Amino acid sequence: MQRLQTLDKGRIPVNTLKKIEKLTQDPQMNIARIDTISEAAGGLWRWVLAVEGFAKAFKDIEPKKITVNKLS
Question: What pLDDT shows up at residue 72?
Answer without folding.
Answer: 78
